Amino acid sequence: MHRTRFSLSTVPLILLVGLLALPVLALLASWLPWGVVPADTGAILREMASTVLPGYMWTTLWLGLWVAVGAAVVGTAAAAAVTLFEFPGRRTFEWLLLLPLAMPAYVTAYAYTDFLQFSGPLQVALRATFGLEGRLLPEVRSLWGAIWVFTFALYPYVYLLARTALGERAAHLMEAARLLGAPLSRRIATIALPLARPAVAAGVALALMETLADFGVTSYFGIQTFTTGIIKAWLSMDNRIAAAQLSTMLLALVLLLLWLEHRAEQRMRFTAKGTGHAGATEAQPVPLRGLARAVVWGVCTLPVFMGFVAPVAFMLRPLASDWSVLPWNRFLEWAWNSVWLGGITAGLAVAVALALAFAVRRKPDLLTRGVVRLASVGYAVPGAVIVVGLLLPVGWVQARFPQWGVGALVTTTAVGIVWAYLVRFCAVALQSVQSGYARIPASLDDSARMLGAGSARLMARVHWPLLRRSTVAAALLVFVDVMKELPATMVLRPFNSDTLAVVAYQLARDERLGEAALPSLALVAVGLVPVILLSRTLRSRA
Fold it and tell me: What pLDDT is recorded for position 300?
């Protein structure tokens, strides 16, 4: 009886997680010899393998390699500057360095292209001032331009984790090295930075996952990566199986990065056990003067300027020069579409996260933890891959049972797009809710059970009052992520329901960069909210 009751209580959890994991499972099933498989799938894959597929692989790997190097150097240098040294403005730079998190990478790409392209204001002014002709700057829409954009848009992932690791460095080891006569440079190189290495690796893995998931920058710059190849196989070649099988290759690379990130987090927890007390003498930042202070100022100013100040200034220029070209009459409609999709998804994601976290809280057995972990895989999957994995089983069911009308229910409707959002962002809400549960003592659950409280009453009277802040943070993070999501929204959005992200991409693609500034700046303004909350949280912990 106990085993039967246990299995029956787990069935709803498995069904819920199955809906979230269905796109990933469908991609894996695309390699199986069953279902509706177009006859030309094998021919398309062989043709792509002999023509464009090596280029996709090489470009993706080259882009990822240089973004990893750039994000690691910029993020670690900035974290070391504000953590290890004392200089005027250090407290201000601690939160200023987080601002690029509010900038979607594709918005940064539009801003730089508008200002630096051949017909942009900078090259026009240089030609007019010095009497020059032709192109004066390298082409922005290139692989190296994408590397530049991704580096300054994604370095905060490395900065955040490296700053935490350096702030919790082993003070007694640093002090022992100082007593042994080691200079400051050697103490940083041999003790502080090696302790931060797992954090840097975790941040780089997160930055690479965001790079692989991107569609806006690579498509706008004309870079042939796996993500753009998947979209082409789906929309241009009209072959969903080929797109799904290409998606599994990208999924394998993303899962490898996710595994490396988890290993780095485990090493972070291990190294944190040996940290010294925060009040140790060596744990205090080292005061800087003269040239060293100027260098540190430059290290902190450059990422903020390149990743936030310059793109915002470039987008404000068309707003200040001519307000008449801006689509004010449609802006409220686009904003409303983004807000209601984000609000619905945030509410459902928080509800699902509470259900999953509560299940793990009540029964932390291997099966429950494994099922809930499976629900978190979607966050590491690019939006374009989720779209393919979602429409693949829908197409199969529609072909077998056309009378059900599943295709009309899921495609180009709010149902389909919210489903894709939940697959992608439920992990964000789940992580926030689980962090809230970690601060609730298990003794409260035991006391409630002894007083005869059931599961519903335990959640309503004990857990919910203590989880309100975590659930608000989870809803806010999901809302902002939905507002910025581009590939899933672009393919699955209902008719006549363009969002700010889709409109910004379409206007920029049509070379109407001045008009794209308005929706782009709106996305930046929304993205600033979680950045401000994160900065306040880090400051309160400090």
Answer: 95
pTM as predicted: 0.84
Contact assessment for residue 412 and residue 476, using Cβ atoms and an 8 Å cutoff: no
* Distance, CA of 106 to CA of 256 (rounded, Å): 25
DSSP secondary structure of 167-231: HT--HHHHHHHHHTT--HHHHIIIIIHHHHHHHHHHHHHHHHHHHHH--HHHHHHT---HHHHHH
Torsion of CA 356, 358, 364, 370, to 10 degrees: 0
At 92, list the tokens.
């201000």
Query: What are the angstrom distances between the C-alpha of 372 and each of 16, 29, 72, 299, 456?
Result: 10, 21, 31, 41, 20
Q: Report whether 211 contacts 64 (CB < 8 A).
A: yes
Residue 521: what are its φ and ψ, rounded to 5°? -65, -30
Name the nearest CA neighbour of 490 among 269, 216, 292.
216
Q: Please, what sign has the CA dihedral across residues 94, 97, 99, 102? A: negative
The span from the CA of 98 to the CA of 255, in Å, is: 26
> What single string gives the DSSP state of each residue in 461-512?
IIIHHHHHHHHHHHHHHHHHHHHH--HHHHHHPPTT---HHHHHHHHHHTT-
Give the pLDDT confidence of 258-314 residue by residue, as tens digits: 777 777 666 655 454 444 444 444 456 778 888 989 999 999 999 999 999 999 999
Tell me the residue type at 472: V
Tokens of 28: 């894996």
Letter for the amino acid at 41?
Answer: T
Crossing angle of helices 328-362/414-438, nearest 10°? 50
Phi, psi of 36 (to 5 degrees): -85, 105
Coil, strand or helix at 287: strand
